[in-house]
Every structure is written in C-alpha cells, then in structure tokens.
Write a structure and sequence with these properties.
The complex is a heterodimer. Chain A has 9 helices and no strands. Chain A is mainly alpha-helical. Classes of the chains: A mainly alpha, B mainly alpha.
Chain lengths: 219, 203
C-alpha cells in the first residue's frame, strides 16, 4: 500500500471574536488575521477573503476573460488557500502567496478546460448591463460610472490586446502593471526566476505596445 | 557609477524598484544618459495608463454569496474529513504481515466462514442493519436580498424539502403575470381538454 498521507487541512473552530470587515484594506495587518485563521478561526479567514477577493478576482478574470469561470476559480483559490494555510509561513506577503495559488489554479483550469462550461452559473447572470444598478444587491465596482465610461473603450482595447499575449506574458503584465507587484513577488507567484520575469515583461510590453500602436499614437 | 549597469539593475531602475545606494548610483549614471531617463518616463507613463484603466480590484458579483460558498465548502470539507477513517499507523508493516505465508490461508478460511454465516443470516427479518447517510451538510440556501430570510426544512424520509422565505415583499395586485410567465402555445392544452361528458375534444 503506497498511500501518501493527506496534508493536514485547517480545522474549523468557532469564532473567537467578531471581525469588522474592511473591503480593500491594505494587507499590512494580515499577519494577525492569518495567525488566527491558522488556528482555525473561520471568521478571521472570512475577513481575509473580503480583503483580497477583489484583487484575486480581477487577476483571474483578466487571465481567463470569463467572469463566471473567474468567479468559481477565485473561490477555489480561497478554498485551496484555507487547506494550505497551516503550511503558510510569513516569509512572503499573504497576498503574494494567494497570487501563487491563483497562478496554479488558473493554469490547472486552463490545462483541463472543458469545451463547454458545466458550471451552475453562466455569464448571462453576470452581464452587468442587465442588472438594475439601483438594486440593493447590484455588484459594486471601485470605479465611478463617469470614469468607467471614459476608460471603457480603452480598457476593452487593452483587454483585447492582453488576450493576444501568451498566458505567461499576460500574467506578467497583469501582476506587474495592474496589480503592482515587484519583480521578486512576481517571480514568487509565477514560480520562476527574476530574470525570466524581466524577460517576459519586456517582450509582453513590447507586444502590447505594437498591438496598441494606434492608441499610443493618438495620445 | 561610471560603467554600464547590468540588465537586471537597469530593469529594476526603469520600474522604480531600486532604493538606497543602488538607486543613487543608477541616478548618477542615468544623468549622463538622457535616453535612459526618457525610457523611464515612458515606462512610468505606460504604468500610469494601465493602472488608470485596468482596475486593480474588482469586487466579484454577489460578493456575500461568494464568501458564503467558500465558508460552505470549508465546512463540507471538515465534515468529509471527520467521516474519513483515521489513517492506519505503520501501514507498510501491516502489508508485510498480510503477505506472510501463514496468515493468508487463515484469513481465507475466516473469510469463507464469515460468508457462510452471512448467507444463513441474511434473510432473517430485522437482521440487516441499514446505514443512513450521516454528516450530509444542509444545502446552501442563498437570498440575494439581505432582508429576506430563508429557512430550510428537510423531510424526515429525505424525499421532500421545504424552503420558507420570510420577508418577501407582498406582490401588488396590479402585477400582470402574463408579462413574466406566458405560454403562447395553446395547442397542447386544447389537445388534452375534454368535453363536458369527459370525452376528449375533437380538435
């Protein structure tokens, strides 16, 4: 019998004390929540999810260009992170570690992607134009409506250009130029050397510039 | 810095990732290389453009449900882990034991005896033990409106489910359901409708 023992997953215990959710908060004090979550505090982990879900969802969505799948995959990232949390060491930032898990999750998904999504949710549900913006449950976006209109067209062009890059080049651009990670953090997240990150970013930016040439020239 | 920096140093400088002495040394070198200063400005403008257009954070749709599903998955994995049999210690040693020459015939004989006993007892009334599934987590019931509470009541035999929604606004009398649920095809109804005497209508 050659059974590999399962890694110890995180036990769940009751809440220690209530946590006030702060969406988008900086991750400087993640360490407190992380250590509480490592001891099984699910509410602390819930707070970590609230803090980081926006960045992870944005990163995954930019990688796969499908909102419904990104919604599922981003959840998978956090579920995997919970199971791996006992092994997390505070050598890297929690957000960088999450990006590493997101990287693996997206690549796994891409490898075994089915031709047709069998998920319970579809893109029509998330079509923001079909949602009443005044509804109490309307999804929120950080950008103001006027800025969204102003940037909408350019964003679509950049997204289309990003889609033409290889997954490695696309991820390097997303992590560096959208998420603002350092070269070292990108190397950690993508599991490659600093030199590889620099090379990928150099060629990715060059190609983006070529694809967006018209946009550059009119600006 | 009089000599040309290596590519790594140059890339870090172009992306504003240098600090302290390294930054000062690169700045001193770049002062004599205006094309590098221009390249850095271009990189900065590009990064600012990307940061301004591509959102760094996007709240996932139905964010509260997003978290609920994660919590539920974690709880389910806990239940699954609790139901999983404890890993056997020193499994390899046991395998060697199992393969030992005297144990296998003994185990085979015991197995045959057990099968015989099972065969003679299996038809006795009340002799069978049924194992009901245990630890099945309740289904996740989500209401997009926080004002609405959903309560889930499973039937005793597992064949029925009742979900009670508390807090749903009253539906006004003026609501015209034909706008939301309207079957334009009447042919199926006509074909199954019966006359007063119970005979199928002749359509």
């Amino acid at each position: 019998m050659n059974k590999i023992p399962r890694p110890t997953s995180n036990p769940v215990t009751g809440p220690l004390e209530p946590v006030v959710p702060q969406a988008g908060a900086e991750s400087d004090d993640d360490s407190v929540l992380v250590s509480r979550a490592q001891s099984g505090d699910l509410r602390a982990y819930d707070e970590l999810v609230i803090r980081h879900r926006g960045r992870i969802f944005a990163m995954v969505r930019n990688m796969i260009h499908n909102e419904a799948d990104a919604w599922d995959l981003a959840q998978e990232v956090f579920i995997k992170a919970w199971n791996a949390l006992p092994r997390f060491e505070a050598k890297a930032r929690f957000s960088t570690w999450l990006f590493r898990i997101a990287h693996n999750t997206v690549y796994d998904w891409t490898r075994k992607r089915r031709p047709e999504s069998a998920g319970e949710l579809n893109d029509e549900i998330f079509d923001r134009e079909r949602i009443d913006l005044s509804a109490s449950t309307a999804p929120s976006e950080a950008e103001a409506p006027d800025a969204s209109l102003q940037h909408g067209e350019l964003r679509r062009k950049i997204e289309a250009a990003l889609a033409k890059l290889s997954p490695e080049h696309r991820e390097a651009v997303i992590l560096k130029d959208v998420q603002g990670l350092s070269y070292k953090e990108i190397a950690d997240a993508m599991g490659c050397t600093l030199g590889t990150v620099m090379s990928r970013l150099f060629y990715a930016r060059q190609k983006l510039q070529t694809l967006l040439k018209d946009e550059y020239e009119t600006r | 810095m009089n000599t040309k920096p290596d590519d790594v140093m140059l890339a870090l400088w172009l992306d504003d990732e240098l600090h302290g002495e390294e930054f000062a040394a690169m700045e001193a070198w770049a002062a004599a290389h205006p094309e590098q200063l221009a390249a850095r400005e271009e990189t900065r403008a590009y990064r600012a453009c990307m940061a301004g257009v591509m959102p760094r954070e996007v709240e996932p749709p139905y964010a509260d449900f997003f978290n609920t599903r994660i919590r539920n998955a974690i709880q389910e994995s806990r239940v699954a882990a609790a139901l999983e049999p404890a890993p056997a210690p020193a499994a390899i040693i046991r395998v060697r034991w199992w393969r030992s020459a005297w144990l296998m015939p003994t185990a085979a004989a015991a197995g045959m005896a057990l099968a015989f006993w099972g065969g003679t007892h299996v038809n006795r009334p009340g002799g069978l033990i049924s194992y009901a599934p245990t630890g099945t987590p309740a289904p996740l019931v989500y209401t997009p409106d926080n004002e609405v509470k959903a309560n889930y009541f499973p039937g005793r035999n597992g064949s029925s489910t009742v979900i009670v929604l508390d807090g749903v606004s009253a539906i006004p009398d003026s609501t015209d359901f034909r706008e939301t649920a309207w079957n334009s095809s009447t042919s199926e109804i006509d074909s199954t409708a019966s006359n007063e005497d119970g005979a199928p209508s002749a359509n």
